[in-house]
Each structure stands twice: as C-alpha cells, then as structure tokens.
C-alpha cells in the first residue's frame, strides 16, 4: 500500500490553497493598517517554554504536546500555540527597548495531539496577533476592532465576540481557591477530566459541557465577585469603547479559556456552522507572561484564529472572489508550430495574461477538451494558415465563437477583453469585434 499522510495532518491542495492565500492577503493588508509586523518563530521550542508559559495544569501541556528528546537528550516540543514563543522572542531580542507597544502577527502551523475530527487537527494553522507593551483597555478595544474589520473583509456578517474578564493574577487565584473549596465535597460526582482540573486548574471546570457537572456548578462562587476594582474599571471601559464602535459582543461570565497566562480580558468568537468545534478564534490579555518566562513584567494582549476552521466557514461570497484569472490556452495545430506558440505564451505573460501552452502533442480536439476542464475562457489556435498570415485564431471558448487576430496584437487584444470579462461576464469575442 502506498504511503499516506500522518493522522490528524492534511494536504491542502488547489483550488483550496487559493482560498488560504486570499485569506492571508487580507491578514497582511488589514493587520498592516494597524501597524502590525510579521514575526516568524521556530516550530520547535524548548519544552520548558510551554510548561512555564501555557501552564503545567492545562490540557495543552498535560496531554496534547508533541514532545520528544533530540539526539542530545534535550526535551523539545513542536509548538502547540505561538503566544509563549512570541513572548520568548520579545524578551530574547529585547524588543522592550523599542517604543511600545510592539505589534506582531504570525501565520503558521501549530501542533496538538488531540482526537482528530471535523475542524480539529493535530497539525492546524493559526493566524495570530500580539500587542505587547500596553496595559490599557484602549489596546484591547483596538485589537478587537482590527479583528472585526478583518472578519468583515472576509464578508462574515453575524459573528459575535464572547467576552469576559478573569481578573488579574491575584483575583484569579483567590477565585480558584474558592471554587476548589466549593467543589471539593462533590469531587466524586465530577468526571475524570474535571477531577484532574480541580487540583490543577479549577477555573477550567466552568467550561464543562457535561450536563451533570453544569448542575453541580449551580450556586458556585462567581468570578465577578472576586474581581478587584482595577479589573472592573478596565472591563467597563473596554465595554464602553466597544459600544461606541458598535462591536457586536456579549459578556459571558463562564468564559475562562484554557491557557494559564490570561489576565483580565478574554474573548472568543464561535460559529454555529462548526458544530461542537465551534471556536474559530480565541484570545485575551496576558499581563504576567513575560515575567513567568523570567523577564520583566510587560503587559500584552492578542488572539489566534484557527485558519482551518475559518476557511471551513468562510462565506460563499468571499470564496467566489478567490478564483484565479481564467487561463488562455495556446494550441499549436501541428507540432512544428510549438516554438511559435511558446513565444506567444511568453508575450501573453509579459502582458500579465495567465497562459498555458499546449505542449503534449495531443490532438486539437483533446487539447480543446483539456482547455475546457482548465476553465479557459479563450483558446488561441495557430496552424499553417495562421502562420502564413502572422495571425492566430482566437476562440471564445465559452460561446464557441472565433475571430482572427494578428500575432503582434494578440496580447493587447486579449488583455482588453479579459479585463472587460472580469467586469462584465456577458462580453464575448463577438461583442468585442
Ligand atoms: P487557543 O484557543 O488554544 O488559543 O487556540 C486558538 C484557536 O486555534 C482556536 O479557537 C481554534 O480555532 C484553533 N485551534 C486550536 N486547536 C485546534 C485544533 N486542534 N485544530 C484546529 N484548530 C485549532 C491560543 O492558541 C492562544 N495562543 C491565542 C492567543 C494569542 N491568546 C493571546 N494571544
């Protein structure tokens, strides 16, 4: 049996790759408008980075990392997320010496050993942005505005930001202690995952989807009651700004997120179209992360979008726009015209026309059939008669009409009609004659 890709990974093939690229073009254009620059960090990091950054008690570090020893016995991990790595690079290259905030974005693969299903892969891809060096709610608002602008450019219409505040590290740990105390007497009624979380990360139990566990949570202490005055002020200022800019959001005080570094603002956007794996993106503030990594305390906020999930639920209107320009196929009628056809192909490309030259020597009939499958709009035929007169025959493939065109006018002739075709699909060779 021939070899196949590794479970949980995927080959992305054309035409799907054109859609991925179109999404990335929007990322680069929109994020640049807010002053974000690209960072590319390694796929491999010391395991310790994620243990300290993401947190020992998280699902990611506890059971989802691709961790192995290299030939010298060092423990390395394929990055399961990129915020910790960006913070590491920030400290390592002393980006705190640049005028704050430092705004960075990334696009690339991440690795988590999860059970694969629709929208959940072991190698998946994230589009992320991190704003490091400002602690004010204005930065939270601006980051969300960028996110909403990005999603609108992709023609999403009805997505709502779920938003919460988890407080600073001190409020969080006070709340975690109270929640643990509340749940401890019910320990045996909890499932295995939640029992483990009770010791390591009780906040995550609030996320549970198990109905029986949700019932146990009725009457549990509420995070909102443990927030400090500064936490509250930060959050209410953020909500004010989002109201002013009409960012669609709803506050969900059950939202806690699965990574340990979060402080204050956390958010997610989900899509109904994804079913159980519904979060297309998540993010939040991480004011203690650089300190956890051994550096000075620098506040930060960011998000990561699951690109696989995003592409899966992209509006059809945006997908339609991703189709590339239809090719022009140049067909020699007789193999001795191949060289002239190659030259014509180059002239078309000089004029920015996508050109495919038929070089296989197959019959004209077979070549026309292939051109149809390649979605060609125009086919250029060059046989003895055309060669004698330095012309070609151009066929509007969609309609089966054809016209003679001088070889040295061909590129301009096609360019003009292709531009018109892009604007007006009813335009044809006949109409252009
Ligand atoms: P996260 O919530 O772990 O956050 O992941 C962000 C997004 O990545 C998810 O909402 C989801 O769309 C996608 N994702 C995660 N796991 C998978 C998977 N196995 N298959 C497909 N997609 C997946 C973070 O990673 C944080 N670093 C986000 C962040 C940036 N917070 C602050 N800055």
Sum this structure up briefly.
The chain is of the alpha+beta class.
Overview of this protein structure:
By secondary structure, the protein is an alpha+beta fold. It has 2 domains: about 240 residues, Bira Bifunctional Protein, Domain 2 (BirA Bifunctional Protein, domain 2); about 100 residues, Rossmann fold, CATH 3.40.50. The chain has an 8-stranded mixed β-sheet with strand order 1-5-6-11-10-9-7-8, with helices on both faces. Bound molecules: histidyl-adenosine monophosphate. Histidyl-adenosine monophosphate (HAM) binds next to strand 6, strand 10, strand 11 and helix 11.
Q: Supply Rg.
A: 28 Å
Tell me the name of the CATH class of the largest domain. Alpha Beta
Distance between the termini: 56 Å
Q: Please, how many domains?
A: 2
Task: Give the neighbour order of strands across the main sheet.
Answer: 1-5-6-11-10-9-7-8
Which structural category do the helix and sheet elements fall into? alpha+beta
- Estimated helix fraction: 25-40%
CATH topology of the largest domain: BirA Bifunctional Protein, domain 2
Strand content bin = 15-25%
Give the helix tally: 17
Low-pLDDT stretches are 424-433
Going by CATH, the homologous superfamily of the largest domain would be Bira Bifunctional Protein, Domain 2
Mean pLDDT: 93
**What hetero molecules are bound to the protein chains?**
histidyl-adenosine monophosphate
Identify the notable features of this structure and list them briefly.
about 425 residues; alpha+beta; BirA Bifunctional Protein, domain 2; Rossmann fold; 5-stranded mixed beta sheet; disordered C terminus; binds histidyl-adenosine monophosphate
């Amino acid at each position: 049996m021939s070899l196949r890709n590794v479970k949980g990974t995927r080959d992305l093939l054309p035409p799907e790759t054109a859609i991925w690229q179109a999404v990335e073009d929007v990322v680069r254009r929109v994020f640049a408008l807010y002053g974000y620059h690209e960072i590319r960090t390694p796929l491999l990091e010391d395991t310790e980075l994620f243990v300290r950054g993401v947190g020992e008690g998280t699902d990611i570090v506890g059971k989802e990392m691709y961790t192995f020893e290299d030939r010298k016995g060092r423990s390395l991990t394929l990055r399961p997320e990129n915020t910790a790595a960006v913070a590491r690079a920030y400290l390592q290259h002393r980006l705190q010496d640049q005028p704050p905030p430092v705004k960075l974005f990334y696009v690339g693969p991440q690795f988590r050993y999860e059970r694969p299903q629709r929208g959940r892969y072991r190698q998946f891809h994230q589009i992320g942005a991190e704003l490091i060096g400002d602690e004010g709610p204005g930065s939270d608002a601006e980051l969300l505005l960028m996110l909403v602008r990005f999603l609108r450019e992709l023609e999403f219409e009805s997505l709502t930001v779920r938003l919460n505040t988890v407080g600073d590290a001190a409020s969080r740990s006070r709340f975690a202690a109270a929640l643990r105390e509340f749940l401890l007497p019910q320990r045996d009624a909890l499932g295995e995952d939640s029992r483990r979380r009770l010791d390591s990360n009780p906040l995550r139990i609030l996320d549970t989807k198990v109905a029986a566990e949700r019932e146990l949570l009725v009457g549990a202490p509420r995070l909102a009651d443990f927030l400090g005055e500064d936490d509250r002020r930060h959050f209410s200022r953020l909500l004010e700004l989002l109201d002013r800019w009409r960012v669609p959001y709803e506050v969900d005080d059950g939202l806690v997120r699965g990574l340990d570094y979060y402080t204050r603002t956390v958010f997610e956007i989900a899509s109904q179209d994804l079913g159980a794996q519904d979060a297309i993106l998540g993010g939040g503030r991480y004011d203690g992360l650089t300190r956890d990594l051994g550096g000075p305390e620098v506040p930060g906020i960011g998000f990561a979008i699951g690109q696989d999930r995003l592409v899966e639920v992209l509006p059809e209107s945006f997908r339609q726009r991703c189709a590339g320009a239809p090719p022009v196929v140049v067909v020699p009628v007789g193999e001795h015209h191949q060289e002239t056809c190659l030259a014509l192909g180059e002239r078309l490309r000089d004029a920015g026309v996508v050109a495919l030259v038929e070089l296989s020597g197959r019959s004209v009939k077979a070549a026309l059939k292939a051109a149809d499958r390649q979605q060609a709009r125009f086919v250029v035929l060059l046989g003895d008669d055309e060669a004698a007169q330095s012309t070609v025959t151009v066929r509007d493939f969609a309609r089966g009409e054809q016209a003679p065109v001088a070889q040295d006018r061909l590129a301009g002739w096609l360019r003009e009609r292709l531009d018109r075709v892009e604007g007006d699909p009813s335009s044809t060779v006949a109409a252009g004659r």
